[in-house]
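Aim 2, interim progress: modelling of the iron/sulfur cluster-bound target.
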Amino acid sequence: MRLKTLDFAGMLAAEAAFSVLSEGSSMEVYWDFLRKSWIWKELKKSRNYRPAFDYGLLPGLAISGLEHYLFKGRLPFTLKHGKPDHEATNVAKLHTPIEYPRADGILSFDVPTSLHRSNTNHEHDQPAHLRLRDPTIPESVNLPEYAGPESRYCPARVYEYVPDEKGELKLQINAQNCLHCKACDIKDPKQNIEWTVPEGGGGPGYTVM
Ligand code: SF4
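Predicted structure of the complex, ligand included:
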């Protein structure tokens, strides 16, 4: 069975790191490994699928269909998204909250259960790997204007708005639960969250040696 893309990319990164340590090469070898792998071919073939839909449903279907069935990644251009993800988040007043069905415990599971199964952990005394560039932005901008998006898109409930002693909501960061998806690094409307690599082998699938 073919490994998942991220797992395989992680293996290539580990091989590159081993080559750096044992042969003194540079981490540029990672890009060489990646370019020669099946991941590169698959990602190149599908690079235009999503941005094609920025032009509308029908043009998106047409371009994606041509790319998939005819050109198979050989289109001589790469479509771009018009703006970065963090600029694509609208203010909350333009939208109606979505009521999602509750997890049924069969096909869908609540966050604590999923988190437990991911075996995520970090050493308790390591430096914080999630930092706020400006600690006032969550309460002054993200919560009033965007309804606290970090408490919604984070799959591990790392970001929670909890009331302080005066009853005012303050952002609490439970970095221990982080799954390293990097959504917060990409999606925060003001790019205020700085994601840094955690210490050691902490994260999902963490094992104590
Ligand atoms: S990287 Fe992902 S899991 Fe970790 S805090 Fe950010 S959004 Fe949450």
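The two ends are 28 Å apart (CA to CA). The beta strands are 130-132, 159-163, 169-173, 193-195.
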